[in-house]
Design a protein that fits this description.
single chain; 101 residues; alpha+beta; Ybab, Chain: A; 55% helix
Length: 101
């Protein structure tokens, strides 16, 4: 189906589907690292926001401050989520025509 100005709806839909598939592949392969507490807690998260790993410095446990450790874990996970969002925004922005995002 052609629109005025020569735009082909089927071609546009096919391109959109290809972009979506490419983004899905990018999300599956993207992995970000984030830390909190100066490296006391480090998390790794996939582009799908699936948590891959959590590393906790053994020194953090010796103090016995469970609440602080919980806060550091939450902060690191939230930072990883922000990094995933930023990376995906950058990838989406690179795929769209200028001025569309």
């Amino acid at each position: 189906m052609k629109f005025p100005g020569g735009m082909d709806l089927q071609k546009m839909m096919k391109q959109a589907q290809q972009m979506q598939e490419k983004m899905q592949q990018e999300m599956e392969t993207l992995v970000v690292d984030a830390t909190s507490g100066g490296g006391v807690v480090t998390v790794q998260m996939r582009g799908s926001k699936e948590l891959e790993s959590i590393r906790i410095d053994p020194e953090a446990i010796k103090d016995g401050d469970v609440e602080m450790l919980q806060d550091l874990i939450v902060a690191a996970v939230n930072e990883a989520g922000r990094k995933v969002d930023e990376a995906m925004q950058g990838k989406i922005g690179g795929m769209l025509p200028p001025g569309l995002l």
